[in-house]
Amino acid sequence: MMNRVQLRLHNAALKLFAETGSQHLNVSELAKEAGVVRGTVYNNLTDPEHLFDQVAIRVVEEMNERIHKRLDGIEDPAEQFGITLRAPLQRIMDEPVWGRFLVQFAISNAELNSFWRGVPTTAMLRGIEQGRFELEPAEVEAFLTQAAGATFALMILVLNGKKTWRDAGEELVFWQLRALGLPTEEARGIARKELPSHR
């Protein structure tokens, strides 16, 4: 559990990573962005050299925590999968820096990619097991890779004001569920459901 200063430093680092596109930060830049002195950085971060990895791990942990809260009481794997795709698109409306960080690094960073091996993979495998999805278990990784790419591409459109998160999320989920074999009206209905709260 991070203290307030550590959280402040992580948030400042996330912003700088997103803005610069670099995975390396100068301690002085970080201190300035966080509004602290250099000594505070060293006193609160065990390894500033590996701060990017720490921030990436925190981003994935937060994503998983929020998704799990949203999925509470939802049993249908198609709905679960839809929520995992739409929730990040909703979040970037409130936290665009978070979205820019993902767009910059999520496709190429193994830690950030680990999100897709969690809840989305579980929902996919359950959907296959229950006969909801027309996919073989061996095809899940490739399917999720293209779903991730589509998600990040739509994030860019949302961040640039070309689409609302709601429209982007509905379109994304609709086409992904159709690709998994769900009938048109059912896929559209799931894509338009209100997102459950993450609180």
TrEMBL record:
Residues 26-45 bind DNA. It comes from the Bacteria. Keywords: DNA-binding. GO terms for molecular function: DNA binding. InterPro entries: Homeodomain-like_sf, HTH_TetR, TetR_C_40. Residues 3-63 form the HTH tetR-type domain. The keyword Calcium does not apply. The keyword DNA-binding applies. Transmembrane segments: none annotated. Pfam families: TetR_C_40, TetR_N. This is TetR/AcrR family transcriptional regulator. The lineage of its organism: Bacteria, Pseudomonadati, Pseudomonadota, Gammaproteobacteria, Oceanospirillales.
